[in-house]
């Protein structure tokens, strides 16, 4: 039987899928000493207006996904979406899963009238740089500043 891949935006009833996605982030991003947030906190994220999660599912198992933050513009009545995380389980990488996740997000953004999607990638992460270029992203020369609190 051929495996069936589904791409979907998570809704308020999809807590188990969000938890599975976060575990993929933990694995792929090699996060050490990570503790999953509480169910109540994760549930609040699923219900938050300015946050979207898309997942790739194979036979009801999450194998990848992305987190997008919707940022309203102040210059005109629209928004842009910042992809904060995108990860695919190692066994499914370089098989079009990430590309289809980005396409799903793009379609969602078009349906909602959002103007653009943006993402940052570390210059040393050549796989990410190649992936975002291959999916139509245009690189910009910017410097990212972080302020520790």
Q: What tags apply to this protein structure?
A:
alpha+beta; Aminopeptidase; 4 helices; 31% helix
Secondary-structure-based class equals alpha+beta
Helix content: 25-40%
Annotation, overall tally of beta strands: 5
Give the mean pLDDT: 94
For the report, how would you describe the main beta sheet?
5 strands, mixed
Q: Low-confidence stretches at least 5 residues in length (pLDDT < 50)?
A: none
Q: What is the first-to-last residue Cα distance?
A: 52 Å
As for the CATH topology, it is Aminopeptidase
Number of helices: 4
CATH superfamily: Gcn5-related N-acetyltransferase (GNAT)
CATH class group:
Alpha Beta
CATH architecture: 3-Layer(aba) Sandwich
How large is the radius of gyration? Answer: 16 Å
Number of domains: 1
Measured by DSSP, the beta-strand proportion falls in: 25-35%
């Amino acid at each position: 039987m051929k495996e069936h891949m589904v791409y979907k935006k998570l809704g308020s009833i999809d807590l188990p899928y969000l938890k599975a996605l976060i575990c993929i982030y933990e694995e792929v991003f090699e996060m050490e000493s990570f503790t999953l947030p509480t169910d109540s906190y994760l549930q609040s994220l699923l219900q938050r207006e300015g946050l979207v999660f898309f997942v790739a599912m194979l036979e009801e198992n999450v194998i990848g996904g992305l987190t997008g933050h919707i940022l309203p513009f102040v210059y005109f009545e629209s928004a842009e979406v910042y992809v904060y995380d995108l990860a695919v389980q190692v066994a499914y990488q370089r098989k079009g899963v990430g590309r289809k996740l980005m396409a799903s997000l793009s379609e969602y953004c078009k349906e909602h009238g959002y103007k653009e999607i943006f993402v940052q990638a570390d210059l040393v992460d050549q796989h990410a740089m190649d992936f975002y270029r291959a999916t139509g992203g245009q690189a910009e020369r910017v410097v990212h500043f972080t302020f520790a609190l």
